[in-house]
Amino acid sequence: MSRTHMRPVFGHKPSCCVSQRLTERLNRIRAMKLELTRKPEKPEDFIMYDDSDSEEEPYYVQKEILSTSYNFVDYVRNREIQNSKLSSIVSDYGSRHILTHEMFRETPISLGNMNKVFCSQWLSDRQVVFGTKCNKLMVYDVATHKLDQIPSLISKRDILSNEQQQCGIHSVQINPSRTLLATGARNTCDIAIYRLPTLDPVCVGENAHRDWVFDMCWLDDEFLVSGSRDTKMALWRITPDLLESKDEVPRHHHVQSVALKECRAAQKVRALTFNKGYKEIAALSLNGFIHVWDAEKFRQKLSKKLPSAQENVCLAVQDSGLYAIGCRSYTLLLDSRTLQPVRKVSSRYSGCGIRSASFQGDVLTVGTGLGMLMFYDIKAGKYLESSINSSRAVVLKASKGFVFPDEEFVDNIQNVKYVPAIYTHCYDSSGTRLFSAGGPLPATLTGNYAGLWQ
């Protein structure tokens, strides 16, 4: 959970320096090696062997172990004296503990007659921003339970022509310094930039895409990449002079893309993500390909056909570089170095399409088309198990939300147990609260769902 390098207050050794810890560590290593030497019923595809059979660890390793405390109390005390360089904490410990002990409880959020929530992000510890299919950008306050609508930004093509494509806000992204928010404009083919935390308008990016913008990703605090159904990817730059406007009444600028390139071998770019470790942009297209771009040169490097071409709609990347792609019946894990499949994570439920995916440390969270959130432990290679009942995997089941009762709902959906699809989910900075949202899976149905788990 936590790791703190201790220094002696009195004498030559810190309080955590107990030789018995080395014996216990050695016993754990022996048990682990014994477990690895057992022949599994089904051999693994990839096996790594230790380069040394010696169990004796070097002296400097033993010294480091004895001077390191894994006690959370020591971590808190070290933080109190503002000595954070000597301590660290596992980022996903809070969420993992709450999940395995089944402590999450859902608070349903009423969204009125809005239609399907497609994307969301935490703005702060008490505000969540999300975009809907009915082209509304909303901010929800988790403390007061109030909803505020942010006005959509109008591009020049909206003013000059009668063709206004308002087909939903599909992406909401915040830059690394959390000073800018990128999302869709009133015209779904354009992008809008807002200043944080005030949400004042900054600019509209226009005339790059001819079809809906499905996703975006920030490369740094200035550069942004957008992907569209027209198979093109655009590079935008939000320069500092755009942020220096001192008008009493907030107004927005109109900017053009720095570069616009076609994503070769793609049919409709569906999802984007930025791999910081390898400085790559990964793009997912609806024809079952993953495409890798060089982020520094904005140049497409390669494309690879995925094992499944059905409903590849979401893409996430772990800090280590592991890609997760949500498919119709499983989540595909890809090695970012080779783009070779590492594992196919079955969804456990038949007909359960993966609609959203995210990484929280070593835990992969997936939102499904059957109103469930599931949690996969990457290191353990299995779904998170409940500490209360080890035979049961951790699953969060969403409430029903709202569905507009049209003829199709009355004739077909009402006769079976209705559950919403989880199109988006996001953790707060502490990892102890989870916002999930979505709506009816059929495209013809109108409705919504949103819930706060805490």
Give the helices and strands, then pairings.
Layout: E1 2-5, H1 20-37, H2 59-66, E2 68-69, H3 72-80, E3 87-89, H4 93-100, E4 106-108, E5 117-122, E6 127-132, E7 137-141, E8 147-150, H5 156-160, E9 172-174, E10 180-184, E11 191-195, E12 201-205, E13 213-218, E14 223-228, E15 232-237, E16 253-255, E17 259-262, E18 269-275, E19 280-285, E20 289-294, E21 299-305, E22 314-317, E23 323-326, E24 330-334, E25 341-346, E26 354-360, E27 363-368, E28 372-377, E29 382-383, E30 395-397, E31 402-403, H6 407-413, E32 421-427, E33 434-439, E34 447-453
Parallel strand pairs: 12-16
Antiparallel strand pairs: 1-2, 1-3, 4-34, 5-6, 6-7, 7-8, 9-10, 10-11, 11-12, 13-14, 14-15, 15-17, 18-19, 19-20, 20-21, 22-23, 23-24, 24-25, 26-27, 27-28, 28-29, 28-30, 31-34, 32-33, 33-34
WD repeats: 206-238
Organism: Callosobruchus maculatus
Keywords: Cytoplasm, Nucleus, Repeat, Ubl conjugation pathway, WD repeat
